[in-house]
Amino acid sequence: MVQRADGRDKARGKSLLSEACKNGIDVGCFNFGVALRDGLVGPRDVTAAIELWMRSCDRGYGAGCREVGLHHHQGDGVSQDHAQAAQLYAIALTIAPGYEYALKGLERVAP
After folding, report:
1. For the chain, first and last CA: distance in Å?
2. In sequence order, what DSSP letters do the residues of 71-93 get, joined into one string?
3. DSSP per-residue codes, 31-72
4. How far apart are CA 98 and CA 50, in angstroms?
5. What is the tens place of the pLDDT at every residue in 33-88?
6. Which of 107, 42, 32, 38 is CA-nearest to residue 64?
7. pLDDT in tens, 8-44
């Protein structure tokens, strides 16, 4: 719905994702972050996206940890910090053992 949205649909998509996140639906927080990062529900906002991904990570959603780790790895929206990236990738793997994207990220930043 959000990708092909006109202004009204973007507002509705933003509202639905925000409500899902507020109601504790971790994938809602994660997807809201993706929509903000990609500018699908308004202006691109990487900082807000990272906050939402971290919230989903703190709630036990491994993809959120991996996404924040990726941004620390790349220095996109946060300072580049490979140690922090490695820690977040490791948390993602603790939550979801075998999570391929987190494993690949950890391999790239591990000493």
Report:
1. 42
2. HHHHTSSS---HHHHHHHHHHHH
3. HHHHHHHTTSSSS--HHHHHHHHHHHHHTT-HHHHHHHHHHH
4. 23
5. 999 999 999 899 999 999 999 999 999 999 999 999 999 999 999 999 999 999 99
6. 32
7. 688 888 899 999 999 999 999 999 999 999 999 989 9
Tokens 């990236």 sit at which residue?
A: 85
In the chain, the amino acid numbered 76 is D
* Own/partner long-range contacts of 52-59 (Cβ < 8 Å, ≥24 apart): 52/21, 53/29, 55/21, 55/29, 56/21, 56/26, 56/27, 56/29, 56/30, 57/88, 57/91, 57/92, 59/24, 59/26, 59/29
